[in-house]
Each structure stands twice: as structure tokens, then as C-alpha cells.
Amino acid sequence: MPPAFATGGFSLLQAATGSWKMSFQSIHFLLFLPVAVGAYFVLPQKMRRAWLLLASYYFYFFAAPTHLPVLLCGTLFTW
After folding, report:
1. Is the model's pTM score more than 0.85?
2. What whole-number distance in Å separates Cα of residue 12 and Cα of residue 65?
């Protein structure tokens, strides 16, 4: 069990330091995926692309926080 669940809390510092990461096998991803997909279909058509972008940032931040600046720069140059 990740330390965040053992202590009953979670912080962005834990994610940034790598003490808790999201992977495809984690409970966090199991909760994240239905919320992300469900929100996609509930949101109006114009907001769906922005939602997917934010959900992707969230996922990649918790998977590898050090890669977030690369993703942000890539978005700025290609959006």
C-alpha cells in the first residue's frame, strides 16, 4: 500500500518526490479512468478537448512529475 493511503492523506509533494506514483495497475488509476471518461461524455463538445488535456496532465504528473515541463512545452508549441 502506498504511503499516502497508510497515513490517510495525499499531497502534491509526495507525487513530486516520487513517493507515490500512478501506474496502470494502481487503485488511483482505477478511480481516475472512469472519472475522466465519464466527465468527457458529460461535458459539452467544446470543452472535451480541454478536459482530455487536463486529465492527461494529471495522469502524467502522477506517473512522472519530472516530465511535466516537457509536456507543457510540447503543448505550447503544438496547440
Report:
1. no
2. 10
